# Entry
Amino acid sequence: MSDRAPQPVERQLPTEEARDLLALVREIAQREIAPKAAEEEDAGRFPREVFTLLSASGLLGLPYPAEYGGGDQPYEVYLQVLEELAAARLTVGLGVSVHTLASYALATYGSKQQQVEHLPAMLGGGLLGAYCLSEPSSGSDAASLRTKAVREGDTWVIDGSKAWITHGGIADFYTVMARSGEDGPRGITAFLVPADAPGLSGAAPERKMGLKGSPTAQVHFDGVRVPDGRRIGEEGQGFSIALSALDSGRLGIAACAVGLAQAALDEAVRYATERRQFGRPIADFQGLRFMLADMATQIEAGRALYLAAARLRDAGRPFAKQAAMAKLHCTDTAMKVTTDAVQILGGYGYTADFPAERYMREAKVLQIVEGTNQIQRMVIARHVAGPEDR
# Structure
């Protein structure tokens, strides 16, 4: 092994507790996640037992209050945990991010009674969540969703279909946005729906380019009855809840993207320092050295960007613009870095014998989920130049 092999990421963490937490996460990632990642992704196997372990280890509710089973950690720490998990296997990092997103509405907008009743199981009881906003005909234009929620006394009846749902069909609970009133964003309400509700079903998972171990599926609601006690927030508040959740969720995607890019860089460095041509390691050649330098620089810039946004969030300051910037930059970086990693490995990079090709396939979806990067540019531009004239 070359003495120039990649080194662990040097992290700036706010407390000794956070450093111990990251050490635990690295241990779990190296022992339980990374060794099986390639085989299980190729087989399309979702590692539910890993999420059970993460829940038991207190890692599925890190940014939420300890009184409900959470970890009371700032986003600055939580996102670095996500990065480490995603570097070991994106299916796991993304899954934790989605579960945190699915828990956000109740943790932030739920009543005290709802939080006491449901959050402990969601955050530390082994449950897995899914977030249901997108539909077959409403993706970027989420405010046009058609899934309906009709009130009948103290019960709501939900009918419709959601699309592109991570953990669709295997989740234990779904945070669902449904139309309870007028057209547009003001007619949408949020609900917490248990997976065993009669009339709720998951379709067959989508056949995807990458992330084959993470099920993405449509979820169908056929007369699903939900008590009003599972309505989150006020009637008509659902869309604002959804957008607030996505601001935080985009930081999760940014951190996952940096983790994936870091894994690709580490693989490229490892290969380039061991592969010899013309009598010396290929890492000695300027063409590859400059590629590695650019990859490392973009990853560090992405990490700094998502952490800056996280610190704004932790301080209670507006961070929507910075979250969009982080999601945009970090996922574009992941796509570029993973593509360059394949190039550095040459023909080997194109084979499934090395993880670089899997990293490249996985990176693409990060430019799409939780708001495409075109949508992120629109969000950023509105903050910079004001809303568009109509």
Q: What stands out?
A: The CA atoms of residues 305 and 326 lie 6 Å apart. The chain has a mean pLDDT of 95. The longest strand covers residues 155-166.
